[in-house]
Amino acid sequence: VFRRMQDARMDDPVGLGVADRGNIVSVADFRGRKLHSFRLNVINDTRNGVVYGCGPDGTDGYEYAGSLSVPGMPFLVNSTNVN
Fold first, then answer.
1. Do the beta carbons of residue 19 and residue 79 sit within 8 Å?
2. Which residues lie below 8 Å from residue 46, measured CB to CB, with a gap of 6+?
3. Among 13, 19, 25, 48, which one is least packed by beta carbons within 10 Å?
4. Is pLDDT of 22 > 90?
């Protein structure tokens, strides 16, 4: 275990997918019937020299990206960034 997080929007987190190219995790919420996504760290925009932290002032431990309701009960999640 590298890190623990808790969020009241998750009812029954059972699966986790980690993005390869960013500090983004997606969580399968079995009983909540949703997929939740979070950004866990800063993002460095090397092209423009800007650093984006989490939260309104850039100092929070994580940032909620949103959720997607699904018709079933998800138990696994995976993500792919296709360019």
1. yes
2. none
3. 48
4. no
74: buried, middle or exposed (CB in 10 Å: 19+, 13-18, 0-12)? buried
pLDDT at 73: 97
HSE value, Cβ hemisphere, 13 Å, CA-based, for 2: 2
Short-list 73, 78, 79, CA closest to 13:
73
**39-58 average pLDDT score:** 89
Q: Any idea how long the chain is?
A: 83
Measured in degrees and rounded to the nearest 5, phi and psi for residue 24 equal -115, 130
pLDDT of residue 3 exceeding 70: yes
pLDDT of 42 over the 90 cut = no
Per-residue confidence (pLDDT) for residue 81, from 0 to 100 = 63
- How far, in Å, are 25, 56, 60, 68 from residue 63 at the CA level? 11, 9, 7, 16
